[in-house]
């Protein structure tokens, strides 16, 4: 069947809510709904009426009608079955079948309608599945939020306790300078007693070292600058144990894989019969004193067909790139069709795409030495101050349309020395003693969080802190090449799923 629209209307044909599943103007749907009451004949028990172009299938709901508008070629038995499912959805959200309550629950009803019908075709769902899909309840989100609230409360309590201790120390001992030299660009001794706003403390489970995360409301100095936080996990453990006792499976942070690896290796959920994966990787090598030595981006669109009905298809591609990428299709793809209309299809129209195989259909490459194309610039300034080296490292997002997730900046440290003294940090940091590295982590860098810095001091020489390496992932394409639609060879829309991964292959400042 092809369902054009679903609506709840009153006896005069006025639409209370209406959802169109194909492209249709507002005037057109209003005209169809207004014509509906005039076509009904009194005294007849039919549940449908027809015109020259459409069929109305309806069911009374007290003073209202649940109405489906379909094509005349659709199967009337399937229409009636779909109508009964729509009629069952209404009482799930509305106790009283009146206009005011229908309007109050309009968005919930429309979301439920979308679960029943997609692109004019009935989905194989029942009431319980519709309820589950629309609620979108997430156990992982509830665990995350509960743990985060507990950690934030612990951090606030710890901050107030430390602030009180520092005030007492200052009252007893005056405002003498701190026990270490300030970082490059940092202030002097302990003249300010302002305390930074502390965010969630996190424990590095590999090395049992506290990770500091704060954003200063005013730049702290003296002892408060390098204050490191521990984390009490008693309440968190109690909460997790309670969940386990209730039969819930909770993965501990120590056993969880790294975010980047899990994102790249986990297949997308709810894959349709046609699934497309847009994958890009970037290689960057930049100089420590500025200048781009190399930037390369390699892109690939992979297609996986898992439903034999959709073996013969064509894929619409939108190329918004303005950088000048080099694009190449697979040898079995119709290159003339792609150049003429940006559709990917096989040369042999009688041959379907392979089933249950992920195959590359389109690839591209971009290479440049122009610094303006670098996604994230890193500026590392080590400064020799006698017995130690003050290091100031900054990042800046150069492509504001990108959103970089799980950013990790790794700075090598001199060997045979103690841990660094961190004076200022946007985000979180970890000292990896086994690898002699400072690991600076930021959950997201985007247009609202374009810049940040890290300052620390440690004995060494300026050349000890290179090369600096960077890793991140993103769900936005760097070259902005997108999949827009999937059609059968007869130009009928095919339901598909897609995902985008942009990640780092190698990114170094040498």
Strand-helix topology:
Layout: E1 3-10, E2 15-20, H1 26-39, E3 48-50, E4 54-61, E5 64-71, H2 76-93, H3 99-104, H4 106-116, E6 117-118, E7 121-122, H5 127-135, H6 139-173, E8 197-198, E9 202-204, E10 209-211, E11 214-215, H7 234-245, H8 259-265, E12 274-286, E13 292-305, E14 313-319, E15 326-329, H9 335-341, E16 343-344, E17 358-368, E18 376-384, E19 389-397, E20 404-412, E21 421-425, E22 428-432, E23 437-445, E24 451-458, E25 468-474, E26 481-488, E27 497-509
Parallel strand pairs: 12-27
Antiparallel strand pairs: 1-2, 1-5, 3-4, 4-5, 6-7, 8-11, 9-10, 12-13, 13-17, 14-16, 14-26, 15-17, 18-19, 19-24, 20-23, 20-25, 21-24, 22-23, 25-27
Helix pairs in contact: 2-4, 4-5, 6-7
Biggest sheet layout: 9 strands, mixed
Record field, number of beta strands: 27
What is the CATH homology-level superfamily of the domain at 259-372 and 478-509?
Answer: Mu homology domain, subdomain B
How much of the polypeptide forms β-strand, as a percent range? 35-45%
CATH topology value of the domain at 259-372 and 478-509:
Immunoglobulin-like
Percent of residues in helical segments?
Answer: 10-25%
Q: Which structural class fits the helix and strand makeup?
A: alpha+beta
Strand order of the largest sheet: 15-17-13-12-27-25-20-23-22
Inertia-based shape: flat
Count of DSSP-assigned helices: 9
The low-pLDDT segments are: 175-233, 251-267
Measure the end-to-end span: 62 Å
* CATH architecture annotation name of the domain at 259-372 and 478-509: Sandwich
Mean pLDDT: 80
CATH class membership of the domain at 259-372 and 478-509? Mainly Beta
State Rg: 30 Å
